[in-house]
Amino acid sequence: MRKWIALVTALLMVFGVAAALGETAQKAPDFIMEGYDGDAGKHNWETNWFFSRMQEKTGISFQFRQYGDFDRWKERKKLIGEGEDLPDVLFKAALTVAETRDWYQNGTLIDLRPYLEEYAPDLWALLQAHPDWLEAITLEDGAIAALPNFNTVQSNDLMWLNTDWLNRLGLEMPRTAEELTEVLRQFKTRDPNRNGRADEVPLAFIGMWELRFLGHAFGIADNDDYVRVTDGEVTSSLTAAENRNFLTWLHQLWTEGLLDHNGFNTTDNLRQITDEKATIPYGVLLSATPLSILPSAALEQYHTLEPLEYNGQKIYRDLLGDVIRGTFAITKECKEPVKLIAWVNTLYTEEGSRLAQCGLEGEEYIWNEDGYWEWNMDLTTVANEILPERTISEGGTAPGLTSEEFQLKYSDRVTRETLEQMMNVKQYSVYPYPYVTFSAADEARLNEIRAQLMPWAEGAMACFVTGDTEMNDETWNDFCRTAEEKGLNELIGILAKYVK
Asked: Which of 5, 129, 143, 202 has its CA 20 to 30 A from that of 490?
């Protein structure tokens, strides 16, 4: 009798599951979602738990078109811009500002602004609290054609100083360019890694672009266009006396062997150290993080150096700002945009942003008794299973919110302290030029000037650093004259038109 009851129960369960599967199979996805998610994330949208959990939460399902190769995605975007086989929504879209502008103007994308206050109240509240964020995603006519990711965690090229060496030599944290020069001299001559060899690299960098972050020590915090907005005026340091003094200082460091002489022809892969027991040769690293160069065991040796003082002030370039534009957009094919607006609004909440980045509280991560969050399984499982299968972090930028408050609550002390140091630099950082959307004509001309000016300027400044070009009045005047001939003043003029 018991066996019969068990058999009937099992059959009922099978029939119930089959019926449920049949019902699911009959229900077509609500929307078509298309976008880029590269190999770095190792995601499969079809099976990723993030989307199934969002479906449980919102009732919305998708048919996915996922691109894992960015070159293929760029080619596909060209067709989307021409209106070919449009999806309903673009997710992790990696839209350029020009694509967002042009696709809105040709009718491919719809204006999302009319829906935000009512259907995306959490996103709207963020935009009201940060008017500069709202301005960053607003087109000239007031439309919002694509939504961003807001990331308040400092992501920058910073100065990482080996404080083990500093303490071993009895030195203090440098506060000016002059004091940093003296620290680098001590690093070079006093064998701070204690291996008996003169193998120390006092300051390591990659290329002129990275060296330019040291320009803050001379009051320079320009962007890649060599401009910065100061008191409402667009200015450039490229031909200013401060840049001449900065390049002269760099040449001094180069001549004394305080700069890595491989810095103009190396990469992170070439200078990377993976052996945990290896002798560390670097005194100061210019890098977004030492982890791209050093083994994790060496991380505690390095601390961010606060911006050096110039005329009694500290300033640093904010590389990316808080807004990553073009992550989410809705096309003209979508019949019910309000549902998608409400869906994406979840990602601008603390709960939704954590779901996207870390999974579900109580499942993938937990809060410990000290008030810090930690993964609920070993880090190997997190890396190999949790992040690729249950989150959408990495592999492309999703819409949503990344806040330092949550990141600063991570349980690992070294990681937390490193992030705290990075955020400390942010208080001195300035975003040199505001988020704007140029007209197609102005953008085309700017790109023409950039193609001429930027590579030349990088190379010319590198030659001043290495001494291939001697710094004197004649060579400096020639440098300034050539910068103007290559369009520097015209570039400034165009950029000035967009500063309010």
From this structure: 143
82: left (phi over 0), alpha (psi -120 to 50) or beta: alpha
User: What is the Cα–Cα distance from 210 to 298, expressed in whole angstroms?
Assistant: 22
Q: Which residues contact 62 (CB under 8 A, 6 or more apart)?
A: 29, 30, 31, 32, 33, 45, 51, 89
Contact 33, 343 (CB under 8 A): no
Task: Judge residue 335's burial from the number of C-beta atoms within 10 Å of its C-beta, 0-12 exposed, 13-18 middle, 19 or more buried.
Answer: exposed
Quick one: average pLDDT of 400-416?
90
User: Average pLDDT in the 145-170 region?
Assistant: 93
| Spatial contact of 166 and 173, defined as CB atoms under 8 Å apart | yes
Element (H, E) at 316: strand 316-317
The tokens for 284 are: 């100061």
CA pair distance 180, 1, nearest whole angstrom: 87
What three-state secondary structure class fits 327? strand
- Provide the pLDDT for residue 26: 57
Q: Record the tokens describing residue 90, joined without a space.
A: 């673009």
For residue 66, list its beta bridge partners: 35
Token duo for residue 235:
């200015």
Task: In whole angstroms, give the CA distance from residue 446 to residue 349.
Answer: 37
Structure tokens at 116: 């935000």
**Domain 158-317+438-496, CATH 1.10.150.20 — does that match?**
no
What does the pLDDT average to over 139-150?
96
Determine the pLDDT at residue 326: 97
- What is the pTM (predicted TM-score) of this model? 0.88
Statement: residue 30 has pLDDT above 90: yes
Please tell me the predicted confidence (pLDDT) of residue 6: 34
What would the two tokens of residue 462 be? 């590198």
Per the rule left: phi > 0, alpha: psi between -120 and 50, beta: everything else, 107 is: left
- What is the CATH number that goes with domain 28-151+323-417? 3.40.190.10
pLDDT in tens, 38-81: 977 799 999 999 999 999 999 999 999 999 999 999 999 999 99
Is-contact 254 261, C-beta < 8 A? Answer: yes
Closest CA to 145 of 106, 186, 178: 106
Q: How far is CA 475 from CA 213, 238, 383, 478, 487, in A?
A: 23, 14, 53, 5, 19
Distance CA(171)–CA(163), nearest Å, equals: 9
CA distance 106 to 81: 8
Q: What is the DSSP letter of 382?
A: I
Q: Lowest-confidence range among 34-43, 195-204, 206-215?
A: 34-43
Q: Where are the alpha helices (DSSP H) in 39-120?
A: 49-58, 70-81, 97-105, 113-119
What mean pLDDT is predicted for residues 254-279? 90
